[in-house]
Write a structure and sequence with these properties.
Helix content is 49%, strand content 9%. By secondary structure, it is mainly α. The chain folds into three domains: 45 residues, no CATH class; 86 residues, DNA polymerase, domain 1 (Orthogonal Bundle); 167 residues, hpI Integrase, Chain A. The strands form two sheets. The protein has a three-stranded antiparallel sheet with strand order 1-2-3, covered by helices on one side. Helix 4 runs antiparallel to helix 5, helix 6 runs antiparallel to helix 7 and helix 7 runs antiparallel to helix 9. The radius of gyration is 28 Å and the shape is elongated.
């Protein structure tokens, strides 16, 4: 039911959708307002506002998404997504407390969310990541039959300045690090430098993941942990092979690299140790565990290994991520034509 009302010199159309009262300005002309009223009545009859079908509750979608995360994502990703959603839900409570249906969302809501987070001094990259998550959630809503159209379509991203190339250690710096790290850290750091493993991948590595006969390390899913991307295999280099063999002979744990207490390495322990050591031996304040992964990739690129192979070894899901090492290939590109001999 829709009715035409006049307030001052302006006509308004009052109507209800999904039990909610709405008001829409129809201008100052009575004739145009009456035409607008008829048009609105037709649309309401046809259900073109999207409330009559595929209009699920927002909270229902979020619950389904959390179950999806629990089933398909690693605990670390679940935690990260929860923190992002908490920010968005806080925004909705403050700015749009009336929103409870998916059909209430429009692109302007997400544009205002960007402004909301900017006021909180969130970084552009963080805001982009949060909006990418929201885009994914509403895309899933379409796949699950809750929506026909993604309300995040057309929402712009912030431009992110190009990063400086990642810090990596020179051969001399690697030697300095290994010569000063001590007995417990030496095999850990050496393995990082020779495999490019992520920190969590090394911390969850078990002896069952090491295939000495094939000289392969498998990054595999565990009951309480999943890799950031897919499972993959990494070749064991000739230098790493005897180190792992000797390390296994001394090991009394299922973990390849347990903590000094024999249990799984505590989450931030390696980061704190390498930060302290790097500062002590004057490698700089910007050296962390991930620097060793960058070092592995950078030295392979400088030795002529192609980026597609680097992508596979590092377990990147997108070649764009691997392209951060592309600047290191310039010299090899210049020398490539010299290999031709017609």
């Amino acid at each position: 039911m829709a009715t035409l009302r006049k307030k001052g010199n302006t006509y308004f159309i009052d109507y209800r959708i999904g039990g909610r009262r709405k008001r829409k300005s129809a201008g100052k002309s009575k004739k145009i307002a009456e035409l607008a009223l008829k048009d609105l009545e037709v649309k309401l009859a046809r259900g073109e506002f999207g409330f009559d079908k595929k209009d699920s509750a927002y909270n229902k979608l979020i619950e389904e998404f959390r179950l999806y995360c629990k089933t398909n994502l690693a605990p670390s990703s679940q935690k990260r997504y929860k923190a992002m959603l908490d920010n968005f839900n806080r925004f909705l409570e403050e700015e749009y407390p009336h929103i409870d249906k998916l059909s209430h969302f429009t692109p302007s809501v997400f544009e205002k969310y960007k402004a909301f987070r900017k006021q909180e001094e969130a970084h552009n990259k963080t805001i982009n990541s949060e909006n990418a998550l929201l885009r994914m959630i509403f895309k899933l809503a379409i796949q699950w039959g809750h929506l026909d159209k993604n309300p995040t379509d057309g929402v712009s991203k912030f431009k992110i300045p190009k990063k400086n190339p990642p810090r990596f250690l020179t051969t001399e710096e690697c030697e300095k690090l290994l010569n000063n790290c001590g007995e417990w850290l030496y095999p850990i750091f050496y393995t990082f430098l020779n495999t490019g493993l992520r920190k969590s991948e090394l911390e969850n590595l078990e002896w069952s993941d090491i295939d000495f006969s094939r000289k392969k390390i498998k990054v595999s899913i565990k009951e309480d942990w999943s890799p950031k991307t897919n499972e993959r295999e990494i070749p064991i280099s000739n230098g790493l092979y005897p180190l792992l063999k000797e390390h296994k002979n001394k090991s009394e744990s299922n973990y390849v690299f347990p903590g000094e207490d024999g249990k799984k390495i505590f989450k931030n322990r390696l980061l704190k140790r390498i930060k302290t050591l790097a500062k002590k031996i004057e490698l700089g304040d910007n050296v962390g565990v991930h620097t060793l992964r960058h070092t592995f990739a950078s030295h392979l690129v400088m030795k002529g290994v192609d980026l597609a192979t680097i992508k596979q070894l590092l377990g990147h899901s997108d070649i764009e991520t691997t392209m951060i090492y592309s600047h290191l290939t310039n010299d090899h590109v210049d020398k490539a034509v010299d290999k031709l001999n017609f």
